[in-house]
């Protein structure tokens, strides 16, 4: 009998759960609700909320919108978004995650300090990611984004550095960057760093590694656009090379199933529980047919 197990620790983090609840609450009142960008990087959940009436718009469409209600998702937005909302009489339902909101405030305070011109505010994060755009926006676009250790080499080490991180980046690489900067910073400059990685994500890693290692085959369920999904999937692959990224039951490769005794289904912080259950059921049905 093949064992199929869902990882209890996988699924939406509280920031995403809160954003979805806020959207559902508004939609059940029957109001027209727009969401600026995908509410979560999972096309199936986006589809489910679309069926409930949620209209997803991009930033260009947002600029054209007037007299409407718009939900801001957990990733947060730069100050410019709030200015446009005010000008266009848009009511904001702000679902920015409190962890992201705190980080935005810290970066803004750092930027507002008097010595702002003499230091580099560096954000370890993904260029163009919504959360990172929101963070860079706190510094009127001046913060430097580095995606990986390699890019830290291009910083100006004669100038002071303040390092922050996008909430969903890897803790290990963050500390590698810290070490690299410590080694290279000029004695005349100062270096301060702040581990601003969300523990909702970081704490999942050890458990996820354990889970992935304890099964013959892993289906990691995540939208292909989710950066948190990509990072956690890489962790699964490190401990279990027989790990596969899918975002729907249709993507289950049946040829992987024969000969395995235990199958694990896990996912990212943006993966809905109902989807992992659906996939687990599809695997069981396929095994029965074989
Ligand atoms: S991963 Fe953390 S910071 Fe990001 S939305 Fe979830 S709870 Fe908030």
Structure commentary:
GO terms for molecular function: 4 iron, 4 sulfur cluster binding; 4-hydroxy-3-methylbut-2-enyl diphosphate reductase activity; metal ion binding. (2E)-4-hydroxy-3-methylbut-2-enyl diphosphate binds at residues 41, 75, 129, 167, 226-228, 270. Dimethylallyl diphosphate binds at residues 41, 75, 129, 226-228, 270. Its cofactor is [4Fe-4S] cluster. With 290 residues, the protein is of the alpha/beta class. It has 3 domains: 1-8 and 201-287, Cobalt-precorrin-4 Transmethylase, domain 1 (3-Layer(aba) Sandwich); 13-96, Rossmann fold (3-Layer(aba) Sandwich), CATH 3.40.50.11270; 105-196, Cobalt-precorrin-4 Transmethylase, domain 1. It is 43% helix and 18% strand. It has 12 helices and 12 strands. It has helices spanning 14-28, 43-52, 59-64, 79-87, 98-112, 130-137, 149-152, 171-184, 199-202, 204-213, 227-239, 273-289; strands spanning 3-6, 33-36, 55-57, 69-72, 91-94, 119-124, 144-146, 160-165, 191-193, 217-221, 243-246, 262-267. The strands form 3 sheets. Strands 1-12-10-11 form a 4-stranded parallel sheet, sandwiched between helices. Strands 3-2-4-5 form a 4-stranded parallel sheet, with helices on both faces. The chain has a 4-stranded parallel sheet with strand order 7-6-8-9, sandwiched between helices. Iron/sulfur cluster binds at residues 13-16, 74, 97, 99-100, 167-168, 198, 200-201, 269.
């Amino acid at each position: 009998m093949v064992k199929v197990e869902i990882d209890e620790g996988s699924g939406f983090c509280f920031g995403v759960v809160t954003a979805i609840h806020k959207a559902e609450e508004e939609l059940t009142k029957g109001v027209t609700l727009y969401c600026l960008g995908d509410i979560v990087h999972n096309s199936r959940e986006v589809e489910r909320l679309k069926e409930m009436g949620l209209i997803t718009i991009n930033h260009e469409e947002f600029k054209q919108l007037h007299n409407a209600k718009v939900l801001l998702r957990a990733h947060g937005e730069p100050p410019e978004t709030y200015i446009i909302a005010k000008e266009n009489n848009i009511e904001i339902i702000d679902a920015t995650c409190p962890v992201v909101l705190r980080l935005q405030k810290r970066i803004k305070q750092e930027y507002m300090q008097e010595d702002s011109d003499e230091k580099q505010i560096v954000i370890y994060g993904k260029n163009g990611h919504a959360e990172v755009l929101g963070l860079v926006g706190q510094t009127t676009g001046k913060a430097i984004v580095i995606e990986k250790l390699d890019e830290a080499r291009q910083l100006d080490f004669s100038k002071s550095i303040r390092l922050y991180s996008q909430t969903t980046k890897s803790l290990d690489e963050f500390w590698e960057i810290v070490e690299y900067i410590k080694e290279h910073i000029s004695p005349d400059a100062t270096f301060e760093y702040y581990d601003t990685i969300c523990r909702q994500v970081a704490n999942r890693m050890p458990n996820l590694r354990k889970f992935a290692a304890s099964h013959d085959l892993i289906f990691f369920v995540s939208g292909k656009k989710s950066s948190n999904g990509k990072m956690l999937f890489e962790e699964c692959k490190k401990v279990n090379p027989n790990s596969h990224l899918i975002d729907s039951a249709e993507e289950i490769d049946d040829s992987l199933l024969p000969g395995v005794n235990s199958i694990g289904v896990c996912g990212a912080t943006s993966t809905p529980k109902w989807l992992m259950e659906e996939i687990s059921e599809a695997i069981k049905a396929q095994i029965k047919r074989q």
